[in-house]
């Protein structure tokens, strides 16, 4: 592998970025799609059947973004809360549209059994720019902790804070893409002044369980539902997926709280992070959205059945 394969056009090798490098990175980010057209308009179409609230607003130099949450209209305090989040990484398109479609097609069907809460696009600036970070070159999905430097993460933490102990399930919808290797992990290494080590993108859908609270039966139930829609990622030659040991077919584990990951924010009994591969020759964008919806439905149904 030549050095040109792992070079990033900003910064000096081995030197973490300062303000100048972050400004240079930000100047390269171009708006490519519309949060208002793609997300806010879709949410507006749900207002007749579901409650919609603004849980925060991100005011950046190049735009202001309302953060919207979708709730069950018949919210009842005695019922468990099921949280579905998408777009923590804005470029992961099926997470956003999977969360929206789940809300549209299925949220009302749980009336009287569960309170459904959906935050479909946690990072709207990054959604518009098909980017992993926010404008400050911060990854929101490593920033879910007190006094978070990421406004996206801080706002979502504030959304769930009034409901301690109420969450039974939280599913966070993500993608793993070819651009993880070609752009985002390269940028991460450059930002942190580290050497980039190329990895392998898994071809298929997989889940990330919590090292501190593994729920293997829950994960396998979600995968069984997804497998009816798209294929499950196999382990690589080392028995791993993205550098982590495969603990069961299609499942790896992370220490969610320690890493500041979104799936850690509720303390729910059942948590998982989905990862689907939209660049697979075996899957279409529509299949990826359907896989996210299938995962969310199976997660809610399992949690309701097992308490």
TrEMBL record:
Domain Peptidase M14: 31-307
Cofactor: Zn(2+)
Top-level taxonomic group: Bacteria
Keywords: Hydrolase, Metal-binding, Zinc
Pfam families, alphabetized: AstE_AspA_cat
Residues at the active site: 275
Similarity comment: family membership: Belongs to the peptidase M14 family.
UniProt-recorded name of the protein: M14 family metallocarboxypeptidase
């Amino acid at each position: 592998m030549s050095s040109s394969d792992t070079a990033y056009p900003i910064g000096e090798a081995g030197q973490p970025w300062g303000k100048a490098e972050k400004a240079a990175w930000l100047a390269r980010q171009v708006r490519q799609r519309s949060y208002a057209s793609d997300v806010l308009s879709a949410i507006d179409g749900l207002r007749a059947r579901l409650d919609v609230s603004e849980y925060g607003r991100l005011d950046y130099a190049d735009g202001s973004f309302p953060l919207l949450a979708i709730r069950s209209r018949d919210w009842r305090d005695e019922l468990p809360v099921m949280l579905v989040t998408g777009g923590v990484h804005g470029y992961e398109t099926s997470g956003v549209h999977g969360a929206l479609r789940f809300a549209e097609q299925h949220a009302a069907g749980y009336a009287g059994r569960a309170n459904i809460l959906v935050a479909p696009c946690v990072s709207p600036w990054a959604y518009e720019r098909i980017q992993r970070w926010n404008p400050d070159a911060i990854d929101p999905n490593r920033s879910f902790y007190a006094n978070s430097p990421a406004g996206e993460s801080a706002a979502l933490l504030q959304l769930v804070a009034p409901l301690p102990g109420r969450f039974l399930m939280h599913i966070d919808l993500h993608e793993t893409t070819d651009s993880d290797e070609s752009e985002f992990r390269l940028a991460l290494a450059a930002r942190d002044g580290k050497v980039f080590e190329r990895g392998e993108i898994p071809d298929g859908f997989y889940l990330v369980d919590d090292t501190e609270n593994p729920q293997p039966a829950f994960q396998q139930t979600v995968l069984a539902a997804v497998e009816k829609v798209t294929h499950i990622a196999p382990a690589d030659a080392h028995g791993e997926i993205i550098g982590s040991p495969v603990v069961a077919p299609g499942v790896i584990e992370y220490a969610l709280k320690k890493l500041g990951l979104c799936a850690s924010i509720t303390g729910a009994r059942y948590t998982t992070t989905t990862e689907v591969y939209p660049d697979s020759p075996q899957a279409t964008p529509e299949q990826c959205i359907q896989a996210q919806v299938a995962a969310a439905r199976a997660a809610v149904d399992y949690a309701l059945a097992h308490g």
